[in-house]
Design a protein that fits this description.
The complex is a heterodimer of chains A (260) and B (281). By secondary structure, chain A is α/β, with parallel strands linked by helices. In chain A, 39% of the residues lie in helices and 23% in strands. Classes of the chains: A alpha/beta (260), B mainly alpha (281). Chains A and B meet through strand 7 and helix 7 of A and helix 11 of B.
Chain lengths: 260, 281
């Protein structure tokens, strides 16, 4: 949390001598990290003199920080409940807009052992003796896992309910777990595209009913932007527009996100 | 510090800074207590998930403390009373878990005892799987809290010297009898303090547990893990459970250090700390 604030302060000081750069502070959900870095580069090229600083963390942590008065210009949440918290507190300016979606996929370790169970579907993963790891129902990926399982009529019996999707991915990638439920984008970043394993740590198995739990990502300009300088609200809106533009959407699509 | 003949007071300026330093540590805890919703406290602390987590934490931390006692005491003896090459390096190794990030500890444990780990691979063949079990929680706790016991015992052993034991041995007592009737009774104060700290550290263990053991209610989700998870949906519950951990830790530390202060050998302890910091600097 501190780093982006400090960085923003530093760049404002150092750039003061050369050209007056404006630093736009974007709070983005952890799963958006890589994509938003790419989006930032594109946005900075289109808007010379603007620097985009990121604070990447879990959506609930970000929402907490915003409520505590963090000077952020834009908030991109991984789920609607956390955006709702920010909206309910009146920290947003303008309506949040959905800009991406994500669905769950089943992952298994890439280098399967000889004695590893055969897993090709959610039913297989839910079978007895299979070490399945999912997110806890308290976090968005856990709620999605419950929805997908209910829709498929399968009862999951995980050996662990993790607090974050990266923890699930880690346990599968290391081979501790036989299977896990993560977002398509997480699987892709771990080298597990649909049906491909090259260099990856996990295999991804598409869920037939993945659409039964679609996670929608909303983005909004924050009220705090107005306090950060006269140009900030306008720039923040331009950033949001850029994310929603064709260019922005193609970056997100390449990383596995679905259209809103 | 307390029992010396001449009391050397710090310069006033430093004392002020020192008191401000205490505020850095105290303010967050005061805020934590202030943040607890007292009306919801009973309900938050008695929810099934909270009780499960508390019960699991107490069971695993007590087990871990017992294991630390059994393996930590001999380890401290070896490090202080046995001459072997590389002893000081071995001492550093024992302290490692105190300074590596807990998540690194968890990864190390996974590399050792995970299904594909150095030892875990062989255990797997014997049908023993540790990850995702309460045993994994205990192992994580032992790993991070054992150094506390060893350091406390080492301190006690080094301060006291070996004179009493030498007398016993010269009078014909066997090494085992000497240990049981001379060394051990003299070690008791240090042992109690060490065990209490070991228990407190085991109770607070988080990073290695979540990395190595996972998180499942009643099996591996200890109180710190429950706090971390509650934060997502019910921050008030997280604050309330945090308070429990802080209170337990405070009681435990007061027991460990409070009894020391009240004793007449407080002065010896003072010297001991001076010496130890000197040696470690």
């Amino acid at each position: 949390m501190g780093s982006s604030v400090v960085l923003a302060g530093c760049s404002a000081l150092s750039d003061g001598a050369a050209e007056p750069a404006t630093t736009l502070t974007v709070f983005a959900a952890a799963s958006l990290g890589d994509s938003f870095e790419e989006l930032a580069d594109g946005f900075e090229q289109e808007n010379p003199g603007v620097e985009v600083e990121y604070n990447v963390a879990g959506s609930s942590s970000l929402a907490e920080q915003i409520l505590a008065g963090a000077p952020a210009d834009v908030f991109a949440s991984a789920d609607e409940p956390n955006m709702d918290t920010v909206v309910a507190a009146g920290e947003n300016s303008g309506e949040p807009k959905p800009f991406a979606t994500n669905v769950l996929t089943l992952v298994t370790p890439a280098d399967t052992r000889a004695d590893a169970p055969d897993i090709a579907s959610l039913e297989d993963a839910a079978a007895e003796g299979v070490k399945l790891v999912v997110c806890a129902p308290q976090v968005p990926c856990g709620r999605a896992a419950l929805d997908v399982a209910a829709d498929a009529g399968v009862e999951l019996s995980p050996v662990s309910e993790e607090a974050s999707v990266t923890d699930v991915l880690g346990k599968v990638a290391s081979g501790e777990a036989d299977a896990g439920l993560v977002y398509v984008t997480d699987a892709l970043s771990a080298g597990g595209g649909a049906g491909e394993t090259a260099g990856g740590t996990v295999n991804a198995i598409e869920l037939e009913n993945a659409d039964s739990a679609v996670n929608t990502y909303p983005i909004t300009v924050l009220d705090a932007a107005a306090e950060n300088g006269p140009e900030h609200p306008e720039l923040a809106q331009r950033f949001v527009d850029y994310v929603l533009s064709e260019d922005g959407q193609s970056v997100l699509e390449a990383d596995g996100f679905g259209a809103p | 510090m307390r029992g010396r003949e001449v009391r050397v007071h710090p310069p006033a300026g430093l004392a002020v800074v020192g008191i401000l330093g205490a505020a850095v540590l105290l303010v967050p805890f005061v805020a934590l207590v202030a943040g607890v919703d007292l009306t919801r406290l009973p309900e938050l602390l008695t929810s099934p998930s909270a009780l499960d987590a508390l019960g699991l934490s107490l069971r695993t931390a007590l087990t871990a403390t017992a294991i630390c006692l059994v393996i930590g005491t001999p380890l401290a003896l070896v490090l202080t009373r046995l001459d072997f090459p590389g002893r000081s390096f071995a001492r550093s190794l024992v302290l490692l878990p105190l300074v590596v990030p807990p998540v690194v500890g968890g990864i190390a444990l996974t590399e050792a005892f995970g299904r594909r780990g150095l030892i875990g691979e062989h255990l797997q063949l014997l049908g023993i799987e540790i990850a995702f079990t309460s045993a994994a929680v205990v192992m994580a706790q032992v790993f991070v809290s054992l150094p506390f016991l060893v350091v406390a015992l080492e301190g006690a052993l080094l301060t006291r010297g070996e004179a009493h034991e030498r007398t016993a041995l010269s009078l014909g007592a066997s090494p085992l009898r000497t240990f049981l009737t001379v060394t051990l009774p003299l070690l008791v104060p240090g042992l109690v303090a060490g065990l209490v700290l070991t228990f407190a550290r085991a109770l607070g263990e988080f990073g290695a547990t979540i990395t190595f053991a996972g998180s499942l209610q009643g099996t591996t989700r200890t109180l710190p893990l429950q706090v971390y998870l509650e934060r997502e949906t019910d921050p008030e519950a997280a604050v309330a459970l945090s308070l429990v951990l802080v209170v337990v830790a405070l009681v435990v530390i007061t027991v460990a250090y409070g009894r020391r202060d009240g004793r007449r050998d407080g002065r010896r302890d003072g010297r001991r700390y001076g010496r130890r910091t000197g040696a470690e600097a």
